[in-house]
Amino acid sequence: MRTESDLLVLLEELSSIKWYVIGVCEVKKKLSEEQKILNDGHLLYWRGKPQGSKQELGIGFFIHKRLEKNIVEFYSVSEGVASVTMKPNNRYNLKIIQVNAQTCSYNDEEIGRFYEDVHLASERVKTHFTITIGNFNAKIGKNTEETVIGNHGIGTRNERGQMLVDFAEARSLNIMNTFFEKRHRMPNVATLKIRATEFSLNIQNRYSLLDDEDLNNDKINKQFNDIIKEAALKVGGKNDKQSSSKLSI
């Protein structure tokens, strides 16, 4: 979102969905902190690096114009941590913290400072509700009996993932995206082409091993089914839970 054209593309996409507050990462704006009222009346708050610095990281919020009068404060700790405090009604107030953690190319000391910034943002103003969103650049993995993690983690935990879990446990936070089952993501075109080629080669390799003696139609069908199933599993397919004869890729 470095240029105005990038901003226009994003606003065009937002016009097709219902939204009120959206946190964004990798803003890469040249000003260290700014507020802008967009042409359609919505607000953009962001924090980037000062002029002359390498333009990386950067965070911000798009806030719907209907909520303009509900905004209490926008506060940024760094180009990786910022918050917006709102008062939805007379009774409650809400704080949303947007984060964008450094990648694994940064050392643990810098990541430690990032988590200190997150803690500072969370403690700055006490609110009834606090939500932290964004990119922690961490792999949580599957649940290993920690109460802060749900049953829908993915993959294997890395060192940064353990830092995030420790941070959440120390502050009684829940890592909420692990509590909800994710939709299956369709692979991109390049990945599909690679899988199709691998699938074809696996079929050819297994086809050459077919027995050609004393086979009736049922045995032939079974062997073909086994060949296709094994080839599909090798390129990322999985058995359908409801029927062992079905595959999904």
Quick summary:
With 249 residues, the protein is an alpha+beta fold. Among the domains are: 99 residues, no CATH class; 60 residues. The protein is built from five helices and ten strands; from the N terminus they run αβββββββαβαααββ.
Question: What features would you describe in this structure?
Answer:
The chain is an alpha+beta fold and 249 residues long. Among the domains are: 4-102, no CATH class; 189-248. Helices cover 31% and strands 21% of the residues. It has 5 helices and 10 strands; from the N terminus they run αβββββββαβαααββ. α4 (189-207) packs antiparallel against α5 (217-234). The longest helix has 19 residues, at 189-207. It is globular. It starts with a helix and ends with a strand. Residues 241-249 have low confidence and may be disordered.
Which features characterize this protein?
249 residues; four-stranded antiparallel beta sheet; four-stranded mixed beta sheet; 5 helices; disordered C terminus
C-alpha Rg (nearest Å): 25 Å
**Could you give the order of the helices and strands?**
HEEEEEEEHEHHHEE
Q: Write down the overall mean pLDDT.
A: 80
Q: What summary fits the major beta sheet?
A: 4 strands, antiparallel
Counting helices, strands and paired strands, the structural category is alpha+beta
Q: Beta-sheet strand percentage?
A: 15-25%
Strand order of the largest sheet: 1-4-3-2
| Count of separate DSSP helical elements | 5
Q: How many DSSP-defined strands?
A: 10
The span between the termini is: 34 Å
Low-confidence stretches: 241-249
Q: Estimate the global geometry from the Cα principal axes.
A: globular
- Share of helical residues: 25-40%
